[in-house]
Write a structure and sequence with these properties.
- With 172 residues, the chain is an alpha+beta fold.
- The chain folds into two domains: 32 residues; 134 residues, Sandwich (Jelly Rolls).
- It is 20% helix and 30% strand.
- The chain has four helices and nine strands.
- The strands form two sheets. Strands 6-5-8-3-2-1-9 form a seven-stranded mixed β-sheet. A two-stranded antiparallel ribbon has the order 4-7.
- Strand 2, helix 3 and strand 3 form a beta-alpha-beta unit.
- The radius of gyration is 18 Å and the shape is globular.
- The N terminus is likely disordered.
């Protein structure tokens, strides 16, 4: 089988799996974008409720310690409502809430780090973390997850400690 035949076959299968006449366009898009093209990580919906307003994100969900260690290193762009979620349970499936710290080694773009408290509210925000910095960025107390979004976005949206954070677990 030639390389061209293999590509054509793969495209045909991909198109066949995406054609759902009765499904709304938004559902088809959500299904085809379930895995991030660069990281290969699952993409899950995440909502932050701030001032009575729900703000929706689509975030990459780290699933292995290796994915957590790499994070958003080497990325040159991140959409305004995109990010990466680092739940504690990736490092330990029964992990209790614990203080977390991150650094910006090999991270090209500024990020806001949102630390999520055990009650699923924003515990603290480290705004505009400096690219390439090796300085430790720490939560102020025990957290269950850390969310990274584009630098300055938290202030732009008016996010603050106490805002509610909710996300879906990736399907297995």
């Amino acid at each position: 089988m030639s390389f061209r035949t293999i590509i054509a076959f793969g495209l045909a299968i991909g198109l066949a799996s995406c054609t759902q006449a009765e499904a709304p366009a938004s559902t088809a898009v959500a299904e085809t974008a379930a895995v991030h093209p660069e990281s290969g990580l699952p993409i899950v919906p995440l909502t932050i409720t701030s001032g009575g307003k729900a703000i929706d994100f689509r975030v990459e969900y780290t699933t292995t310690p290796q994915a957590e260690m790499k994070g958003l290193m080497f990325r040159t762009e991140l959409g305004p409502n995109e990010g990466m979620l680092f739940p504690n349970k990736i490092m330990n499936p029964v992990a209790p809430p614990a203080p977390r710290s991150f650094y910006m080694k090999n991270t090209v773009i500024p990020l806001d780090l949102i630390f999520v408290a055990p009650d699923s509210t924003i515990e603290s925000i480290a705004a505009n973390a400096v690219p390439y910095s090796l300085d430790s960025i720490e939560s102020q107390g025990p957290v269950i997850a850390v969310l990274e979004i584009p630098g300055g976005r938290a202030a732009e949206l008016g996010l603050k400690p106490g805002d509610k954070v909710a996300w879906s677990e990736p399907s297995s």
